[in-house]
Design goal:
The chain is an alpha/beta fold and about 260 residues long. The chain is built from eight helices and 14 strands. The strands form four sheets. An eight-stranded mixed beta sheet has the order 5-8-2-1-11-13-14-12, sandwiched between helices. A two-stranded antiparallel ribbon has the order 3-4. A two-stranded antiparallel sheet has the order 6-7. A hairpin with a 5-residue loop joins strand 13 and strand 14. Bound molecules: adenosine-5'-triphosphate (ATP) and magnesium ion. One of its GO terms (biological process) is L-arginine biosynthetic process via ornithine.
Length: about 260
């Protein structure tokens, strides 16, 4: 089954254009099975501000105390997931909202020995649950809260969650839809094709910062298992079906 995993950035969710949903519709009509994983950064930040809880980020990852985790759950599992499911279904996309906690969809453990609090990394993806939904033409819409076997919940960066899901399902496409038209160079122009070495250099020169760091790193990490990986803007499909943004490639290997 040709699976397309779309990571939808939190900053886009409230003002999404019809084109985004029409592109998903087009993918489905072309026989692709689509999964959406969503973030929710701006809403989480607004809620934290309301509760007077400081926003602390490290290389694009959110430090997650007990109280931050609670707010992340309200924002992602609550409002964002359901808003997005409702929007999808207005376009007849048969969306079903899930969190990573549902039937251990995203089984998680502590990221980096807990240095960032309750940030999680994915240990296992319940692929049979997703396959069941995809086979029956549902569109899973997933919020990236993971859980472990003893019931502890984790805040998983949505870019990393999307990558883990795409790898576990051997997806055909992993597409990060964000609020820029791909990875921008030092002149602010979108880079068409990018390799691991270029990504490294752009992080070192601080051209790639903040939330773009986990995105490019997870994009590179997915390349072995996923045929096509890209970071794109909201109108993510070109007329010929190619991705409109930055496409990741393994780079040219020269033999002697
Ligand atoms: N070189 C770069 N090219 C493009 N964006 C960059 C770059 N370096 C840093 N960024 C920042 O990364 C942001 C995208 O990551 P961000 O985490 O904010 O959004 P998202 O992942 O789409 O949403 P969410 O985290 O809510 O899921 C851009 O809006 C931009 O501010
Ligand atoms: Mg992000």
């Amino acid at each position: 089954m040709g699976i397309v995993v779309i990571k939808l950035g939190g900053s886009l969710i409230q003002g999404l254009s019809n084109t985004f949903f029409e592109h998903i519709n087009l993918l489905q009509r072309n026989g692709k099975k689509v999964i959406i994983v969503h973030g929710g950064g701006p809403l989480i930040n607004n809620l934290l501000l309301k509760f007077s809880i400081p926003v602390e980020m490290e290389d694009g990852l959110r430090k997650t105390s007990n109280e931050v985790l609670e707010v992340v759950e309200y924002a992602l599992n609550g409002k964002t997931n359901k808003d997005l499911v409702i929007m999808c279904n207005q376009f007849n996309l048969s969306a079903i909202g899930l969190s990573g906690c549902d039937n251990l969809l995203l089984e998680a453990s502590l990221y980096d020995k807990g240095k960032l609090g309750w940030v999680g990394e994915v240990e296992n993806v319940n692929t049979s649950l997703l396959e069941l939904l995809l086979t029956n033409d549902y569109l899973p819409v997933i919020s990236p809260i993971g859980v472990d076997k003893i019931g502890q919940k984790y805040n998983i960066n949505a870019d990393l969650a999307a990558k883990s899901i795409a790898k576990a399902l051997n997806a055909e496409v992993l597409c990060y839809v964000t609020n820029t038209n791909g990875v921008l160079n030092s002149e602010g122009k979108s880079i068409e094709k990018i390799t691991k070495d270029q990504v490294q250099a752009l992080i070192e020169s601080k051209t790639i910062t903040d939330g773009m760091i986990p995105k490019v790193q997870s994009a590179l990490d997915a390349l072995d298992e996923v045929q096509s990986v890209a970071i794109v803007g909201e109108n993510f499909l070109n007329e010929d079906g190619s991705m409109n943004g930055t496409v990741f490639t393994k780079g040219v290997v020269f033999s002697e």
